[in-house]
Amino acid sequence: MSKSFDELVAVMERLRAPGGCPWDGEQTYGSLARYLLEEAYETFDAIQEAEETGEIENLREELGDLLLQVIFHSTIGKERGDFDVDEVVAGVTRKLILRHPHVFGDAKLARAQDVLDNWDKLKADERAASGKAEKAADSILEDVPVHFPALIEALKLTSKAAKKGFDWENVEDIFEKLNEEVAELRAAIDKKDRENVSEEIGDLLFVVANLARRLDVEPETALKQTNRKFRRRFGFVEQELAKAGKALDDASLDEMDALWNLAKEQGTTL
């Protein structure tokens, strides 16, 4: 490993050792799980920022925080005799080589989709060759974690089903389904059926996730980008009102809407 990587591992081991940090020493795989998730989301957010602004300092820092979680878990694994960081690194290196036979072997895979299709086949072959007893699956969808964010879960579920031929024939068919779901939502609203309204909104979001999949758009990223855009534009509204000596509560909808439209006109920065 590199000097800086080895130093990070040594620091983590020192923190976990007797006489080290009481908090670090108490952590387990389970207690760290939420921090791993938080760091992954913060890294995801930093990626969006880097893509939009070109500023990468925050991304570099968040990647470091994410790496720390890997080192933390690996240190616990070493103490328990489960695995160490060298085994983690060796395992993923071996996996990359085995799953890229078009780079490290003689396979010919010209298109990105060919690579993805072959990746799934290789994963299945590896499971079969490992000799590990696999739990009998009642559905191909069981591989998709139920704890994924909803949009990512929808994307993964429908991608699995689509690979088996359960998919719309074209994008226009999805738009028709989208219109159908909008009509059903309107009907539920008219009936003041709150439970059904919730269900129909879920159906509508699910169809939008399918549309994103067919258009090769990652819906979680797309929504994150829109959330960031909303933050910027609404922030502009707040700033402009403040310049005029007004609080949000004192502004009319027409005033806020006019400032929102101004923010949209300045689209390159807002």
Descriptive labels:
Helix Hairpins, mainly alpha, 12 helices, 3 domains, single chain, 270 residues
Structural write-up:
It contains twelve helices and no strands. The chain is an all-alpha fold. It has three domains: about 5-100, Orthogonal Bundle (Helix Hairpins), CATH 1.10.287.1080; about 140-215, Orthogonal Bundle (Helix Hairpins), CATH 1.10.287.1080; about 220-265. α8 (about 150-165) crosses α10 (about 195-215). The radius of gyration is 24 Å and the shape is globular. The two termini are about 45 Å apart.
Summarize the entry for a quick read.
The protein is an all-alpha fold and 270 residues long.
| Secondary structure tally, helices | 12
Number of domains: 3
CATH level 4 superfamily of the largest domain: MazG-like
User: What's the alpha carbon Rg, rounded to whole Å?
Assistant: 24 Å
CATH class descriptor name of the largest domain: Mainly Alpha
Shape: globular
Structural class: mainly alpha
Question: What does the main sheet amount to?
Answer: none
Briefly note the CATH topology name of the largest domain. Helix Hairpins
Helix content: over 70%
What is the arithmetic mean of pLDDT? 91
Terminal CA distance: 43 Å
- Order of secondary-structure elements: HHHHHHHHHHHH
The number of E-state strands comes to: 0
